[in-house]
Amino acid sequence: MSSSPNPRAVVLISGGGSNLQAFIDQVEAGELPLDITLVISNVADVGGLERAQKASIATDVIEHTTYADRTTFDHALAERIETEKPDLIILAGFMRILTAEFVHKYSGRLINIHPSLLPKYPGTRTHKRAIEADEEWHGASVHYVVPEVDAGPVIVQGRLRIGDTQCSQELQHRVLKIEHQIYPLAAKWFAENRLSLSNGQVLLDGEESPEQLQTYNV
Ligand code: GRF
User: Fold this and answer.
1) By percentage, how much of the chain surpasses pLDDT 70?
2) Is 48 found in the same domain as 100?
3) Which of 176, 180, 181, 218 to mutate to test the pocket of ligand 1 (most atoms within 8 A of CB)?
4) Which long-range contacts (CB under 8 A, 24 or more apart) does 54-58 make?
5) Are residues 160 and 97 in the same domain?
6) Average pLDDT, stretch 93-122?
7) Is the pLDDT of residue 207 over 60?
8) Residue 194 above 70 pLDDT?
9) CB 15 less than 6 A from any atom of ligand 1
10) Which pLDDT does position 158 carry in this prediction?
């Protein structure tokens, strides 16, 4: 076990892991005082696992398809997570709905990123829906996880003007650039002990965080 004073994090992924890469890059650059001790994917052979291995981070695959139901999968996941004794669990493109039991177990140290300006557009196809609704703004939200999907208290949001972007893939690409900035930022606040959750309210430096909404020109 490392003797580093940094908080320990486990990252859960299901895919390419570009957000994971943003964490790795910031840790390696000395910008993010976090020890990512393990990356778990619920899907084998995804790009994010390769990214972790390249950064010498331990990986594990726990395939949800091999479990009878959500509860037994979540038990297996929690059991593996527990061996790491993490301070923070980061969902980074983890495409599984977690049981309320799992979410409660890790309340206050389980965070997610969602590609919309919550509470707008929970769920999937957020970019397409924002374009179709002729929204002026779109973006991403980092939030604490609660049992209701994409509904937890927001830690930080980043937004951009949709402008002429009419292609949802292009918008997704633009929003990802924001994700790669705000997600490590939220983790940094956590790692520096500046962030907490009190009665469902996000506190930054002990204060009810003033609207943490940042505008990006990407
Ligand atoms: C991101 O858009 C994230 O917001 C969503 O899933 C995507 C994951 O991308 N939850 P990546 O695997 O981090 O590249």
Assistant:
1) 98
2) yes
3) 176
4) 55/24, 55/28, 57/24
5) no
6) 97
7) yes
8) yes
9) yes
10) 98
Looking up residue 200, the CATH number of its domain turns out to be 3.40.50.170
> Rounded to two decimals, what is the model's pTM?
0.96
pLDDT of residue 4: 81
17 CA to centre of ligand 1 in angstroms: 7
Q: Are residues 137 and 75 in the same domain?
A: no
The letter for the amino acid at 111 is: I
**The one catalytic residue among 114, 138, 143, 180:** 114
- Report the domain count for the chain: 2
In a domain, 147, yes or no: no
Tell me the per-residue pLDDT of 71-81, one tens digit each, with 9 for 90 and over. 999 999 999 99
114 is catalytic: yes
Domain that holds residue 209: 118-141+156-218
